[in-house]
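Supplementary notes for students who missed Thursday's class. We covered one full example, reproduced here. Read the sequence, then the structure, then the short commentary at the end.
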Amino acid sequence: MPLSIGRNLELLSCGSSSGRSVTGVPLQPRLFQLNRERDDIVEEVVERVLSGRLQAAWESQEHGLELLINEAADSELSLLEGARSRGGRERYAFWHHIAVTSSHNGEDQNADLLASLVERYASDIVGQCNPAIFRLVSRVAPLGLNTLFNLQRLGGARHWPKRWSERILVQGEIERIRRLSRLGTLVFVPTHISQLDPVLLGWALDQASLPPAAYGAGKDLFTRRIPAFFMRNLGAYKFNRRLKHSLYREVLRTTAQVLLERGFHSIFFPGGSRSHDGRIEQSLRPELLEPALGAYLASLLRNEPRPVFFVPVTINYHLVLEAETQIGRHLRADDQRRPVLEDAESPDLARIARYTTTTLGRQHAVSLYFCPPLDPFGNEVDDGGRSHDRSGRAVDPARYFQTPDGPGRDDNRDREYINALSERILESYRANNVLFSVPLVSLAILDLVGQKQPLWEINRVIRFARGEFLSSDELTAHCDRLLALVRQDAEEGRVRLGPAVQEADAAGLVQEAYGYFRMYHTNPLVLRRGNGVELRDTELLYYYSNRAHGYGYERRLRQGV
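Structure (token representation):
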């Protein structure tokens, strides 16, 4: 059942950003200690990276310090070449000096130089959290959004909900996750489809009395004054998507692991970027899961076991803020050749405001579903933090790291653990994906066109179906058959459904989708004409239909299952 945000929630330990326990004794969320420990975190990151690199250089000339430093300098210089700003020119001169100096240095001098570079990166990456600003945002942001929505209601949409919390469904294993936050470190691993995901997830954590979490944010988000102010004070650590050399990646990975080892709950988007085609994640980036596995092993090696719990979260919208740009990039061959992590699109505040006052003005416009927690090996975890395999048998996670000499690392074995965990997270995404009317009706529309044009592949449907006409009767009948399939899947635990998909008949489902189709986007997805609809933006119809991808609905519709 949806979490009732308006009621009084039990406040458990550091799970409450309000800072009070069930006994009324003031408590501080772990994240609020970040500023106090920041210098120690940077120092620990520098020490770990430096000691590892010095050991590798001592063991093999292939891992020499000069080569490592020059790789970093070449990467930085390639990004700064042609820089016009004063800061850019100064950074170019700095890295040029590093490249020249390292070639004349001895190993001891390059070790000192490497230490200074690692500290430079770590100091830039590690974030801050200002408790006063965090509390202010927690109190003021919902009030501001409520005011904005209520002013919008005066324009005529009086049936819309009055409260911000009524627009967002927060569901799932809330109580269990609260309990686990007292027993170990939480790693939230959400699906990622919009720039709004981190904001809405942070809001949902606060409203559900779950602990605030550190999270990574692209450096481009720190270039605008207002977003940068909040990013710098709400626990975000900064990363540069464009830096891909090994030293930077190692500093970033080590920073994430040190934060987890110190008990800072964290958020990772394991897909690595927003979904460009609207689908729920099909694969995960293992390097984004590795720090948590390393943090758990480190606690075993210290003989101070601290569990790490992964919490998959599915985030679904009726309409997506940047759907037009994302699907455009996905379908254009030139953009397909560009790595997705190069995407440094900055938020357009005017567009966000328009989206907020239209799409998010509707009831249940967004869903966040907190899935059953998992241990680092993909086993489900109960309320007491105990792991259970797929057969329900209790298992001891510590045994996964056992070697003849005690707990230890094995790169090949640990890679298999990461793969198994990735598969379980992807399974959880699919089973807890919340389907709304927009993806289902979009799928029904495109499938009907495909049935009328059986020789067309989906790319031809997208390209040539603009202007196709579908009667209301045939579309409603097709949606009725689709609705039967998705409800059957929901009963069997293969997917979850939004309120209208649970309760409305096919005609009501189509009607709700029509309301969204003509809302917010530059062009409507379909136009009502006579006793049917004319397809207009087939790219967006494809984008939204993809949220229902992976369940075989097109095949099952054609088989009459």
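Commentary. Confidence is low (pLDDT under 50) at residues 1-26, 151-160, 334-344. Residues 34-59 form the longest helix (26 residues). If anything here is unclear, bring it to office hours.
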